[in-house]
Design a protein that fits this description.
The chain has 173 residues and is α+β, with helices and mostly antiparallel strands. It contains four helices and eleven strands. The chain has two domains: 1-55, no CATH class; 59-158, no CATH class. 10% of the residues are buried.
């Protein structure tokens, strides 16, 4: 089993799990993704996702000490990167790149992203206590994050939103 097939199977499992968590109203709003009603509609969507993932160019990038699998058009939340909303950043630490056919050379490959917003994570409470010594300390922390939209991987740019909406409809026909 190749790494790409294993990755796709994991993606299928995650998508099916997410789809089953949808309410009836949410499923009807996502009719482009889940077109059929009744039994087996998830499998139709997974077939479309297989086709899209096999064609999509992706990269594994490292930023903020973590690694992210990104494709053009994805939104990710990373550790704080300097810049204002709307500005463009380049992620140069690309560890792996490929598409459905296999791996691609990462020498000189960069991932371009647009900063959507600077945000803070949820508050984490740190409470220290030593019993019988009247020692209690309470601190809070909110990690600063940057929300990025991946615009391009090398020379592969993200599709406009209209083209992305039409692609699943064309694939199911």
């Amino acid at each position: 089993m190749t790494a790409a097939v294993a990755l796709l199977q994991q993606y299928e499992h995650d998508l099916l799990f997410t789809w089953r968590g949808l309410t009836q109203g949410e499923a009807s709003h996502n009719s482009a993704i889940f077109p059929a009603r009744g039994h087996g509609r998830g499998h139709i969507a997974l077939r479309v996702v297989y086709q899209e993932v096999m064609r999509a160019m992706f990269a594994i990038v490292r930023t903020g000490g973590k690694q992210y699998r990104v494709a053009a058009g994805d939104k990710i939340v990373v550790e704080k990167i300097a810049g204002d909303a709307g500005s463009t950043v380049s992620l140069g630490d690309v560890l792996f790149a490929g598409n459905g056919d296999g791996a691609q050379d990462v020498g000189g490959l960069t991932v371009s992203a647009e900063i959507i917003a600077q945000a803070k994570g949820e508050k984490v409470i740190i409470f220290k206590k030593r019993r019988r010594h009247n020692y209690r300390r309470k601190n809070g922390h909110r990690q600063q994050h940057t929300i990025l939209r991946i615009t391009a991987i090398g020379d592969h740019k993200a599709e406009p939103k209209q083209a992305r909406a039409e692609a699943p409809a064309a694939a199911e026909a």
